[in-house]
């Protein structure tokens, strides 16, 4: 397949940006002394905050490089919108969108994750150099995912969700959101371990905004320690989400998605102080600063941050 010429990835004649080859990074190269910043790169037409901006392959690669130079530790490349009500897309089209971007960013020296619910896309992205799989399906989509993760041996983000992008809001009903999300994640974890996945491969995500209303999201954020207690690294995604828009609303109108980055950075600082492994954000620079502040605060003056950390 000629990925550069694939439909939905830009005109066949448009040359891709020249990407200087850097030393290819591995997952083990990621810093360990602080919370990591994962930059969001949606190669989609309809993601709620940046849909349509980076559908063209060249624009997507350029934005990925911008995220990298802004301090992203990981670039999360997705080709299918997961916002409530989004249409399902064919994994073939998803691959046409994400694979050339994954390849180019890996070549440029980025650690790359692929945000996908599809086994075929996860497999192809890892073959193209992706270092981890970020699956928001909560295993509601493709039952073969645990077998693939066991086979590939790569890190995998296990996120909590109920239902799919078309009906998940109907399932945002909990008696005790923390207890229920934890027990549903534990059941999923068992499925992965039974399939042969090693515990060290799993990264846990409570899935903020996925079958959750604003009060659920705030309760989950308030009690991140209980997710850390599962014994895996924890990832959270608050970036520009609806619950931040409602918090910042004025005159009865939620704040626009692009006006939620300061609030996102505040959640990054608090999540870093709570010891999460990574925050997934659109505006990398502000969250990178936020994480640095939280780390320095946590050290209480004992030990300097190394350059670049
Ligand atoms: N949120 C979105 C997409 N992918 N992945 C993980 N692990 N956690 C999240 O919270 C998450 C995600 C939706 O946000 P977007 O449409 O702005 O990418």
TrEMBL record:
Protein name as annotated: Dihydropteroate synthase
Q: Which organism is this entry from?
A: Zhihengliuella flava
* EC top class named in words: transferase
Task: Indicate the segments forming the Pterin-binding domain, all copies.
Answer: 35-292
Assigned protein family: Belongs to the DHPS family.
Q: Which reaction does it catalyse?
A: (7,8-dihydropterin-6-yl)methyl diphosphate + 4-aminobenzoate = 7,8-dihydropteroate + diphosphate
| Any Pfam family matching the protein | Pterin_bind
What Gene Ontology cellular-component terms does the record carry?
cytosol
Q: In which pathway does it act?
A: Cofactor biosynthesis; tetrahydrofolate biosynthesis; 7,8-dihydrofolate from 2-amino-4-hydroxy-6-hydroxymethyl-7,8-dihydropteridine diphosphate and 4-aminobenzoate: step 1/2
| GO biological process assignments | folic acid biosynthetic process; tetrahydrofolate biosynthetic process
According to the UniProt entry, its GO molecular function terms are: dihydropteroate synthase activity; metal ion binding
Write out the entry's keywords from A to Z.
Folate biosynthesis, Magnesium, Metal-binding, Transferase
Q: Which cofactor does it need?
A: Mg(2+)
InterPro entries cross-referenced by the UniProt entry: DHP_synth-like, DHP_synth_dom, Dihydropteroate_synth-like_sf, Pterin-binding_dom
Q: Which PANTHER family does the UniProt entry name for this protein? A: FOLATE SYNTHESIS PROTEINS, FOLIC ACID SYNTHESIS PROTEIN FOL1
EC number per UniProt: 2.5.1.15
What does the protein in this record do? Catalyzes the condensation of para-aminobenzoate (pABA) with 6-hydroxymethyl-7,8-dihydropterin diphosphate (DHPt-PP) to form 7,8-dihydropteroate (H2Pte), the immediate precursor of folate derivatives.
